[in-house]
């Protein structure tokens, strides 16, 4: 019975050795999808699927640290998710809060909130703000947690903030529109000051963005994996990195 495990470990090591450090993406976006389906297939409560997904997040971040990834953006809760039945949403919010505590306890992660905090429950928004402040000096893996996040909402918020700032400096509409460019909008996104993701991974077999990093992923490479997020293995991650390394990035050409 041990033979398959030995073969699997050998294959994983072979994959790892095939990856050149200079082809590891600096910033990876991950859509952690499939927790509910995982629970349904297991005949377990939905909350068990969300908890299994949360545990996988901690494991995944460890892989990223081992491989030299510098930045990860995790799509944990969309604006649409906030409309779910309270019987599912409330336990999910508790699991997310507990996961944030666990991220803070790591000590070497810099955690940054990416989303519209004003639409979140006050206690969760406060926890995100506190975690961002307490980990701001960490020099390890930078983790963006996309909670209460929607790509369209982000772009609208960015444009609103840009217009407010311009108006505060006494600029007219004509001046604003005359100067407006994509670089300016990037400076007002939730991820302002950060490089765009080179690679975006989505689990569960779905092949769509669902509003995730719509602006930032314009030139990202995409990798879609059949595994549900709680079942996502280190070897699946290594395959995604190998696929990325073998691509020729054309940046729209």
TrEMBL record:
GO MF terms held by the record: ditrans,polycis-polyprenyl diphosphate synthase [(2E,6E)-farnesyl diphosphate specific] activity; magnesium ion binding; Z-farnesyl diphosphate synthase activity
Keyword Cell wall biogenesis/degradation: no
A Pfam family matched in the record: Prenyltransf
Residues binding Mg(2+), per UniProt: 33, 221
Cofactor: Mg(2+)
CDD domains: Cis_IPPS
Protein's UniProt keywords contain tRNA-binding: no
Keywords associated with the record: Magnesium, Metal-binding, Transferase
Domain of life of the organism encoding this protein: Bacteria
Biological processes annotated in GO: polyprenol biosynthetic process
Co-factor note (free text): Binds 2 magnesium ions per subunit.
Gene Ontology cellular-component annotations: plasma membrane
Enzyme class: transferase
Binding locations of substrate: 34-38, 50, 78-80, 84, 202, 208-210
Active site location: 33, 81
EC number: 2.5.1.-
UniProt record similarity statement: Belongs to the UPP synthase family. Z-FPP synthase subfamily.
Classification via HAMAP family: ISPT (MF_01139)
Free-text function comment from the UniProt entry: Catalyzes the condensation of isopentenyl diphosphate (IPP) with allylic pyrophosphates generating different type of terpenoids.
Subunit structure of this chain's protein: Homodimer.
Protein name: Isoprenyl transferase
Provenance organism: Arthrobacter sunyaminii
UniProt lineage: Bacteria, Bacillati, Actinomycetota, Actinomycetes, Micrococcales
